[in-house]
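Researcher: I'd like a candidate sequence for this fold, 375 residues long. If you have to choose between options at a position, lean toward the conservative one.
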């Protein structure tokens, strides 16, 4: 895929862009198979991505000046780079950028300068649902521009009916992150409905969701297919987020317990449960490791979907001792996945699948089904 931004050196996030996509996918599959080489492990065909127009979220730094703002990448040194023409974003996201730029000027959100630490507008965060509805979050240094944003927000929503969730996030510290702890909801909905397969997932402003909705749908569907074969009495879904895996797998388990440390995510998961009238799933806002250590229950199947750092040695030891027959592990980092599996020698891989959530980079999602040896 040709990208003028990449060729001009404005953005090099897509490190493998010059490699033909078929070769990218083949290299990822070969790497996964080499690192997860286990006897009798069956690999399903990899799930490919579209080469462009797939990202459902945009994390755009606000740069330029108040009279000529831009959205894209603002380095600590050098000229800001306008990335609003990035071909990876869904068409609806790209079409929204002009509205955001106009609003920055109307509400007089002064672009933040990381070098001088002056200005207010740090980021504009956009998320697009399969329906085309949007969530917009303004990340600001302070509340200086808040009243102006509140004043002009109704006019923006009138011009942009797809805008369902609108908020302001405060990030006063000069940290290398894109959002702070404080979220101020503006009039509108409190959550964006991300319909994935037959499951409505409700995304609140500070909740995590995969950047590639179509591949995420196949990720959840694959876990559901395996769970239909496992048919557990009790399934633990650890790091459950807004409940994607738990709700997809619920028809094939008598009882499901979803654990996520974020109360916002748990509130969203419970909303999905209510919408679907599911009665065999319980979600709790707890630390996954602490739950595994303190729970009196003994599941016969466990599903984990941790962040890039993996589940770590403590939780691996708990799962090793849990007695659960089946373990499904979803990972966006093949290295930490391999390290965690090495810590759980009681399990042997049954089946695995690579899902290309991140085209044009070396990253990918791996879903693997493991079964306790001797069972």
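Model: Candidate sequence:
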């Amino acid at each position: 895929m040709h990208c003028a931004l990449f060729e001009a050196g404005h953005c090099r996030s897509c490190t493998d862009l010059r490699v033909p996509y078929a070769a990218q996918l083949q290299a990822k599959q070969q790497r996964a198979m080499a690192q997860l080489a286990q006897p009798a492990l069956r690999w399903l065909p990899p799930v490919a991505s579209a080469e462009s127009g797939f990202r459902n979220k945009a994390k755009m730094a606000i740069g330029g000046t108040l009279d000529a703002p831009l959205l894209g990448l603002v380095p600590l040194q050098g000229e800001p780079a306008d990335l609003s023409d990035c071909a990876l974003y869904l068409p609806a996201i790209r079409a929204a950028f002009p509205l955001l730029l106009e609003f920055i000027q109307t509400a007089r959100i002064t672009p933040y300068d990381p070098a001088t630490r002056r200005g207010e507008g740090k980021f504009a965060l956009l998320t697009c649902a399969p329906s085309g509805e949007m969530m917009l979050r303004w990340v600001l240094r302070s509340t200086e521009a808040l009243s102006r944003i509140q004043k002009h927000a109704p006019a923006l929503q009138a011009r942009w009916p797809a805008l369902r969730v609108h908020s302001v996030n405060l990030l006063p510290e000069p940290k290398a992150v894109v959002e702070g702890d404080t979220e101020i909801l503006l009039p509108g909905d409190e959550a964006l409905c991300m319909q994935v397969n037959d499951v409505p997932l409700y995304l609140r402003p500070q909740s995590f969701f995969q950047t590639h909705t179509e591949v995420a749908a196949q990720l959840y569907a694959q876990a559901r297919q395996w769970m239909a074969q496992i048919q557990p009495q009790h399934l633990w879904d650890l790091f459950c987020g807004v409940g994607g895996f738990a709700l997809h797998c619920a028809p094939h388990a008598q009882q499901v317990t979803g654990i996520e440390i974020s109360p916002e995510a748990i509130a969203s998961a419970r909303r999905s449960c209510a919408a679907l009238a599911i009665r065999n799933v319980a979600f709790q806002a707890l630390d996954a490791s602490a739950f595994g250590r303190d729970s009196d229950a003994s599941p016969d199947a466990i599903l984990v979907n941790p962040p890039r750092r993996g589940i770590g040695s403590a939780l691996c030891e708990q799962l090793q001792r849990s007695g659960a027959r089946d373990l499904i592990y979803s990972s966006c980092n093949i290295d930490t996945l391999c390290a965690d599996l090495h810590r759980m020698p009681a399990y042997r891989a049954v089946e695995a699948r690579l899902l290309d959530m991140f085209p044009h980079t070396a990253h990918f999602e791996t879903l693997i089904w493991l079964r306790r040896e001797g069972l």
